[in-house]
Amino acid sequence: MKIAVINSGSSSIKFQLFYMPGAKVLANVLVEKIGEGSSQITFKYDDKKNIISAVIKDHHEGLKKIISLLRELSILKELSVVDAIGHRVVHGGEKFHSAVLINEDVIKEIENLIPLAPLHNAANLEGILVARKKAPLVKQIAVFDTAFHFHMPKEAYLYALPYEMYEKHKIRRYGFHGTSHAFVLKQTALELKKDVKELNIITLHLGNGASACAIEKGISIDTSMGFTPLEGLVMGTRSGDVDPAILIYMQRVLGLSVDEVDAVLNKKSGLLGICGENDVRTIIDSDDEKAKLALNIMIRRIKKYIGSYMALLGSVDAIVFSGGIGENSSYIREKVLENLPCGIKMDKFANEANATFISNPKSEIKFLVIKTDEELEIAQECLKFIKS
User: Is the pTM of this model over 0.90?
Assistant: First the structure.
């Protein structure tokens, strides 16, 4: 059976077509710079890759172009012939704790959650509405990034703010990257030959956006991202944890507007803010002192989260790296794992080879590198609805 997965961003569409249950990728399409005059489409199929330019004015036009390309290559005649369509939705609030079949009530709730994730949910919803027009009879499933963290205990998700702010306005920690952490958990269980319910692990999704997650017996009990994806680790352009009084200072003393503060924290901070560059590969190769400082700040923050999660979990079976940086940077992995407690050892040669297991065989805690696949996780979630 064929399952399409759509990840609709504010100016992009990521589209993957799977043949399931074998998880074969029939096509992978990325449409970028939608509505920006000249868009770019990257199309991968049968180990081939094509990049073309086109004028894509909106998401409806973008999806239409994707289907046109698939039809030309005899990969897919129409979107309406797939068995299911899975949609990545960033914010599920307190309403959604698992994937759901999309109906009018679900669409309304996703719309209601836009204030909690204005850029993401609005774009995700646009992809859903366009796909429903193209394939109104096909089962369409929403998979929420926040859902994996739904079962965090109250002491993990509440901020020490007046309780009514949670009750009336739902200000709390939600966590994100849940689709990735869920996929990595399952793959780790396969590698360790254990049931997910037996595992205590720490997963690190390290990319331009980054988060850590403490998983106890297969359940997320804490994660670094909070009310928004801004909290937690140092990221490419996001600050991660900062003293909240800095935001007040930036407005009251520096005279920045709310929108300017938002831009500073989300788009001008993190690695970029420290050294002027947010590509870790470039930063690692640089001799600039600020580049070294930026890496040290990022690595120190990751280590602090690992330490706190080890304390929460008590016993840890594995620390797992994923995401573009986690999967490919042996340098970052080595520095993150450096000077951990006695009995925890990395295999330097395995690490440099980007092996799946990068821990010494005698290490008390296993270190793994797992390539995350959020789209495949979404496709697997869709299978449950096809079979039901």
Answer: yes
Quick check: 26 pLDDT over 90?
Answer: yes
Digit-coded pLDDT (tens) for 274-293: 999 999 999 999 999 999 99
All CATH 3.30.420.40 domain ranges of the chain, comma separated, are 2-144, 194-374
The residues annotated with a catalytic role in the active site are 145
E strand map for the chain: 2-8, 13-19, 24-32, 39-45, 48-54, 84-89, 100-101, 139-144, 200-206, 210-216, 219-223, 318-322, 366-369
Phi and psi angles of residue 219, each rounded to the nearest 5 degrees, phi first: -115, 135
Chain position carrying tokens 């990751």? 302
Residue type, 361: P
SS3 188: helix
**pLDDT tens, 339-348?**
988 788 999 9
Query: Topology of domain 2-144, per CATH?
Result: Nucleotidyltransferase; domain 5 (3.30.420)
Please name the CATH architecture into which domain 194-374 falls.
2-Layer Sandwich (3.30)
Length of the chain: 388
Q: How far apart, in Å, are the Cα atoms of 60 and each of 37, 82, 143, 309?
A: 15, 18, 21, 43
Assess contact for 383 and 216: CB atoms under 8 A: no
